[in-house]
Design a protein that fits this description.
Length: about 190
């Protein structure tokens, strides 16, 4: 854990301000590491984590949020997202009564999440299914959808046109080769954040 804390301190000191995590990464261990590392630095970063309900209830999502906040040692997230919209029925489950999006609304009202969104690694049609109803129910702080890039897929560039066209922000995380050996280093680009 000491190495993780040291790396986060070095990153913040070097100007890195965006930190992404997920409830299920190593069963919460990464949130514990990041929470410890951000002590005294929380106000210098934009903190994101993801919830992994995969169609289960909004109540479960709120329970997961409380656990994430405890592990991250903070009272709020800058961005809380649904992790991995990957099945064709995920959008319907998210929008269903008692679904995760109701939990998002509640978390925003309580000041526990400034912005909400989703991540996706699959078919862009799932992205559109998530965005369609969002246009009608948008409230301040809604959006911030962030698909992961797909090699060989043509939808990555059009994604920004879709989200900016409906007033939502986009953030894409990707890995690029760091050296000739093929090691990969994460990078973040955010051409449109509203």
């Amino acid at each position: 854990m000491d190495d993780a804390v040291r790396l986060v301190h070095e990153a913040v000191d070097a100007g890195i301000t965006f930190f992404e995590n997920c409830w299920e990464y190593y069963n919460g261990k990464t949130e514990n590491w990041l929470g410890r590392a951000l002590r005294g630095r929380r106000d210098k970063v934009f903190l994101m984590t993801k919830v992994c309900t995969h169609g289960r209830s909004g109540q479960l999502a709120l329970q997961m949020l409380e656990e994430s906040l405890r592990r991250l040692q903070t009272d709020h997230l800058d961005l809380w997202q649904i992790h991995a919209i990957v099945y064709d029925n995920d959008p319907e489950l998210a929008y269903a009564a008692g679904g995760v999006l109701e939990a998002f609304d509640q978390a925003k009202k309580q000041g526990k999440a400034r912005f909400v969104g989703f991540t996706s690694h699959k078919d862009p049609a799932f992205h559109l299914k998530m965005l369609g109803p969002a246009r009608q129910r948008r409230s301040p702080g809604a959006g911030a959808a962030s698909p992961s890039p797909s090699k060989g897929r043509s939808h990555d560039q059009s994604w920004f046109l879709i989200t900016t066209g409906v007033g939502l922000g986009s953030a894409v995380t990707e890995c690029v080769p760091a050296d000739p050996s093929g090691a990969r280093t994460p990078t973040v680009s955010s051409p449109s954040v509203k």
